[in-house]
Every structure is written in structure tokens, then in C-alpha cells.
Amino acid sequence: MNSIRIISAAFAATVVALSCGPAIGGPLDYGPDTCQYGYVWRDAAPNDHVCVTPAERQIAARQNDEGPSHRSPTGGAYGPNTCAFGYVWREAFSGDVVCVTPAERSATARQNAQGLSHRVLAYGPDTCRQGFVWREAAPSDHICVPPMSRSMAANENSLADSRRSPTGGSYGPNTCKFGFVWREAFSGDVVCVTTLRRTEVAEENRLGPSRRVTP
Question: Domain spans of the chain?
Fold first, then answer.
């Protein structure tokens, strides 16, 4: 979730999310395809749920209305769907043969590429509610936590070697120095942290699902 920039001074800091939708706690009105605030479904066809601006949806509707007039009246290589000179298929989705200008087709391709990022679930089912980010104690650690906790996890990872016993011990090379224990943010997490921090991480794991956007 690199598009979020956080300004915080403490664990409960104020979060400024530059690219997330509205704060949502309950189920999404339109399921996993629900768009962020300010975006709507393009509706180039009934099942076209690419999230675009309202102006772009209006353009798609206009293209649908004008499409037949941009076809070749005599047919051609693509039968009745052959476009007149200067027009190409829009290709908003598989089978979309509405005839538009090349610039409009390029704009449609851009919309398709950016569409997922304009959904409330921009990061799939693990998308966090506003004010939370992935902890990323490991690349696959998608537990939703306050931004300060992610910073702490990164710092703990960087200190991991210095907190292990240089002579090994009961747990081999992963044995922690006195006063430290395994973090256990996920199965196999043997980064050494304080006992208090391990307790905090366990609580984050428990609360994580409640901090995700509910599809």
C-alpha cells in the first residue's frame, strides 16, 4: 500500500490517506466491485464494473449511442461490425466492437488498467479500512494495523540479527538474547522482540480481520 503517505507522531496518530475511499465499516453496497468515492461504474455494458469518473461514464454512453453511425455502411473485413475509416473497436471488454476514435480506445485501455485502483477494495479482499495499513512484517503479512505498527515491524526486522544470541541456544541460531522472545506475527516468524511487543502483535492478529473493508 505504497500510495498511502502517513504523518504520525504516535501509535494513535492522525492518518492522511491520499488514495483511499471513504471510511467503511459495514458491507459494501455493491460488493467487491464498489468504487471509491468520486468514481462510478463505466457501464459500457451492463456488466462493465470498471471504476471511472462520472464524466468518463457519460462518454462511454455517448460512444454506445454513436457507435452504429461509425460503422462502415458497406461492411468489410469484420462484417457488419467493420468500423468506418478513422475508427477502431473500443475494446472496453472482450467482444466490445463499438467504433470509436483511436484516442478514445487508448483512453478506454487506460481506464481498464487503472480501474482496480479506483475500487474501495483496491488491494483485493485484504484491503484495509481507512486509517490502517498492512503490517508487512513479511511481504505476505497483510494484517491491518495502525501505520506506526508497520514502522515498528520494519524496525524490528532490521534489528533481528542484533537480538539473537551470538552463541546460539535451545533454538539454534534463532535463539533470542535474554529479554527477547519470538514475535510470532505469522507461522515461522522468529524475529526477536520484547515480550510486550509480542503481546501487541498477537492482539493485532486478533483484530486484523475487523480492520479490513468488508466486501
Answer: 40-118, 126-211
